[in-house]
Design a protein that fits this description.
single chain; alpha+beta; five-stranded antiparallel β-sheet; 15 helices
């Protein structure tokens, strides 16, 4: 009974209607064929046998049992009704079985539509056995020997076989052909819609960090908190901090397998209230924390954490108000995160495409030019020293260009590894370029286990690459100092050299500064370029809030000149 109750909400109107119509039909035919109301007991038994197949239509045990009971009762009833019709002289020779046998189509068709050919075969076998038993043991006369009973039984068994084995083929034949998928056309349509929607948004922005900060400002009006943060999932199965407020940065718990309200809220998609901090470092004194999941559809896309240094700061009415605000913000944040993913995928694909084209095109052609110069040098006649010197200079220049191309390919293919982190990616790039240029590279890294969003890490890596490349190409430096500090949502990347500085006015340098400034602005960071004492230049990009600031809202700035 509990199982039947659990599936009672799945009653299928068409199945109920089909059985009611067939039951009414065979009841009328039985009464006409026999003239005996007592034979309607078989109809009552069929109605009872049909209940499991109707009420528990999706159950893997009760529904098939109901169908087997239906065919068994139908076969037994056929013999009884055939005998009654013969005795009352309404239909002789066993043809009275035709009154009840049409009901065989119901359980057989149900099994066929549910794509259960094995069950359908078994139902046919049970029906044949039931017809033999009903034609032999039911009633005073054995109709199994009468031609009408044999004809009626054989006819409906053949029809049942057709229903069982041809239903799936007929369904496939009648089903309209699905249109050929056109993924690129569909992607173009969706991206076009996304661009139009993005332009119509307030501020024309789909920045996860900005949306997260705005959400925290909204929540500050709902309930005061000493610390707050918005976290989202990263590709490595950890959480990343999109924004946070408070007098100091907090090392929030970013793993989902820890025993915390953060993990519970993510798993249950329900707000969680706790009397302890959700930071990995313990806090003294009373603390109340509220973790609210950001759910878009059926997927958890992030979490909002609020903490206060008082007990019981988040009663049910406050939780309801906070949830009302976060529910509205979840869709905005999901759109921003999806847009970030699409942009990152497109950017990475374009970088890989450019790397392939450079490697297979210009780089190979330059290598062939170098081989040609080598051959020309080898075949020079004696005494052509001036030509030989020019060829050597040309060969050195080609070698330099090939080296630059290889470094450019390395830069294009460099990515932040999901497990390695931002500091490791910057160190690998600086070490490779420092070795090629004879630079002595000094590293200082302070990277927490928490991660920045993947798109933000990618932009910081590109800014660091541009700064390191400028130092290698233009500064004439002997030493390079690279400092990387990551404490999400705060990060600072600093690249210093002891070269000439930016006194000269190089157009390519200005272009590099513009690119770095645009990248910093995209992730809402600050680009700072300052002279280094006694010589050289320091390029730094700062993202997020410092230890004693609520949020960073400064615009990107870069000094004129280089």
């Amino acid at each position: 009974m509990p199982v039947l109750a659990s599936v009672s909400g799945r009653v299928q109107p068409l199945a109920v209607a089909a059985r009611l119509v067939l039951l009414a039909l065979v009841a009328a035919l039985t009464l006409i064929a026999t003239g005996d109301p007592g034979q309607l007991r078989w109809i009552a038994l069929l109605a009872v046998a049909a209940l499991p197949a109707v009420i528990a239509a999706d159950h893997h045990v009760f529904a098939p049992l109901g169908r087997f009971a239906e065919v068994a009762i139908t076969g037994l009833a056929a013999g009884s009704i055939a005998v009654a019709s013969d005795l009352n002289n309404t239909l002789d020779a066993g043809f009275g079985a035709e009154a009840i046998l049409p009901y065989l189509a119901v359980p057989l068709l149900t099994a066929a539509l549910r794509r259960r050919p094995t069950e359908g075969t078994a139902l046919l076998g049970v029906a044949a056995v039931a017809l033999v038993v009903g034609g032999t043991l039911v009633g005073e006369v054995s109709p199994i020997t009468q031609p009408g009973f044999l004809a009626a039984g054989g006819q409906w068994l053949v029809l049942g076989a057709i229903i069982t084995f041809a239903a799936d083929t007929m369904r496939q034949f009648m089903q309209p052909a699905e249109p050929t998928p056109q993924p690129y056309a569909e992607a173009t349509r969706l991206l076009t819609q996304l661009r139009s929607v993005a332009r119509s948004l307030p501020g024309a922005t789909l920045d996860p960090g900005g949306i997260s900060e705005h959400l925290l400002e909204e929540l500050r009006l709902v309930t005061p908190s000493d610390r707050a943060a918005v976290l989202s999932a990263s590709g490595g199965g950890r959480l990343v901090v999109l924004a946070q407020t408070g007098v100091e940065r907090v090392d929030w718990e970013v793993t989902l397998d820890a025993d915390s309200a953060i993990a519970d809220a993510w798993a249950t998609q329900q707000p969680q209230v706790a009397n302890r901090s959700q930071a990995r470092s313990s806090r003294a004194g009373a603390t109340s924390s509220l973790v609210v999941p950001l759910v878009a559809g059926v997927r958890t896309i992030g979490l909002v954490i609020l903490e206060s240094d008082v007990a019981n700061a988040y009663p049910k009415e406050v939780v309801s108000e906070v949830t009302w605000v976060t529910d509205a913000a979840a869709l905005r944040l999901e759109a921003a995160l999806l847009f970030d993913d699409v942009r990152s995928l497109a950017t990475n694909e374009e970088r890989q495409r450019l790397a392939r084209e450079i490697h297979d095109g210009v780089a190979q052609e330059l290598v062939m030019v170098g081989y040609g110069i080598d051959n020309a040098q080898a075949t020079l006649p004696e005494g052509a020293e001036e030509t030989a010197e020019e060829l050597r200079s040309l060969r050195a220049e080609v070698t330099r260009v090939i080296t630059e191309l290889r470094l450019s390919l390395f830069e294009l293919r460099s990515e932040v590894d999901r497990n390695g982190g931002l500091a490791a990616a910057i160190a690998e790039y600086a070490r490779t370029l420092g070795t090629s240029a004879g630079l002595r590279v000094h590293f200082t890294f302070d990277e927490s286990t928490a991660r920045l969003p993947a798109a933000t890490e990618a932009e910081l890596l590109r800014i660091a690459q541009e700064a390191i490349t400028n130092a290698r190409k233009h500064a004439g430096a002997s030493n390079l100092w690279v400092t990387c500090t990551v404490d999400p949502p705060y990060a600072e990347i600093e690249v210093s050299d002891d070269g000439r500085g930016f006194a000269d006015d190089r157009p390519d340098g200005r272009y590099g500064l513009t690119i770095m400034a645009e990248r910093a602005e995209r992730i809402r960071g600050r680009l700072k370029i300052t002279p280094r004492h006694p010589s050289g230049t320091t390029v730094a990009v700062v993202l997020g809030s410092s230890a004693r600031r609520d949020s960073v809202r400064d615009s990107v700035s870069a000094p004129e000149g280089e």
